Each structure stands twice: as structure tokens, then as C-alpha cells.
Amino acid sequence: MPYKRAHWAIAILLLPIVVLAFWKHYFSVLGQAPFGYHAHGITATGWFVLIAAQSWAIHTRRIALHRSLGLSVFAAVPLFVGAGMLVIQSMAIRYVTKHDPFAATLGAQICLHDLVSSAMVAGMVAMALRNRRRVAIHAGYLLGTILLVMPPVLSRLPLDGIVPDAVMPWLSPGLALLLAAIERRGAEPMLVTFAALVLHIYVVAPIGQTVAWSQIVVAYAAFSAPALALISALAALVALGIVWIGWRAGPKSRPRRKPAVAAAI
Fold this sequence. Notes:
By secondary structure, the chain is mainly α.
């Protein structure tokens, strides 16, 4: 089975990194954090836990549990994407109000990264479902969703003076290439992940620095609660549609054989 230790890497390494990265602006001020941060924190953490649980279940031969957990993506992905629209507005408000140096500097870029990454996560889950009988490809696309959302996490880590600024954006793409080299049967999804992350570096990030995008972020920050709820619901429905298309494009279930009936004598 591919990625035999993926669940341990997520549980022991990545989840503590997420807590450290968001400690200052979220976990240490839970009571003051806006609803969008809570929605995103719960759904994103849930997604990490789901991928880890899926990996653990299949590698411990709990096939029925693995399949049951797999069906939960039809709820988990729409909730993740819908919550993403909420947290984008929360970050937009922090960007507009210059709430802290991080939001004032990178807030607009983070908003665009989250928007694009949410769409990419839905697409990669659809590809995982389409390839659910090709184990290495299936696992690679699901694991790739975690690498997609890691750059904003890494950008919040206190690594000044440890990791050069020029190197920081390449940590996630570099890991994707490393995994593609290690698990060659599942190289395709990791190369797709690498391409998506490079797209973020050379296309998404520069667009996120433009005046035009900044104006969009400012306008989005002013959306009313009903308008935001509608946008979140529509985004969740689109994500559900993308995941469903991936499922329908996958292999059909094999029909069960009917027991042979003994011929009458």
C-alpha cells in the first residue's frame, strides 16, 4: 500500500505545525475569534483528521471503515469549501482594518490563495474518487489536498532567520516532488499538486498583490451576513457537484453474483 506512514505524519507532524502556526491569531484568542475562523478551523482540522483516518483504516485492513469514511467526503468537502468563503471574509476584514501586520501585508494574497485552493481541493477529491480503484493514484490525490493548503500555514510559522524567504514558498512544492519520486506509482497526483503550488507562486500570488484584487477584497469585506451566507451555500453546492461528478466518472460497482440455483431433477 502507498504512503504507509501518512497518517502518522499528519497526526504527529502536520497537526502540531497547524496549531503552532495559528496559535497567535486563533487558538490563543478562541473567545475573540470571528465565526468564520471557527468554521474554517473545524472543517480544515476535520479534513486533516479524515485523511489521516482513511490512511490508518486502509493500512490496518479496516476496509469497511475506510469505505464508510470515504463517503463522508460528500459532506466534508462542501463544508470545507463553504467555510472557506466565510474565513476569506474574516481575513478580508482584517486586511481592510489593518488588524495586525500579517493581515495588512499578506491578507489579500491569503484570500485569493484560500479561494483558489478551495476549488482545487474539490477538484482533487473528485480525481481521487474517479481513480478509487487505482490505489496509489487515489491516495496521492487525497494526500495532495493537504499539501495544497499548507503554504498559508507555513507562512505563519516563526521561521524568520531559519528558513530564507526565497525558500519558504518552495517547501510544499518540494515535498510534492519528493513524494512523487518516492511513490512512483502515485507520481501523477503529486506532480499535479506540484504544478498547482507553482501556479500559486507565479500566478495567484502576483494577482493577489494587484490593486484590482485588493479592491475586490475590500468589497467582499463589506458583504452583509445574508449575502455571505448565500455565497457560502452556493460554493458548498458547487463543491458537492464537483465531487459527485468525480464519483460518477469512476468505475461502476461490480454487480453481485446471484447464487447458482440447483437444477430440478
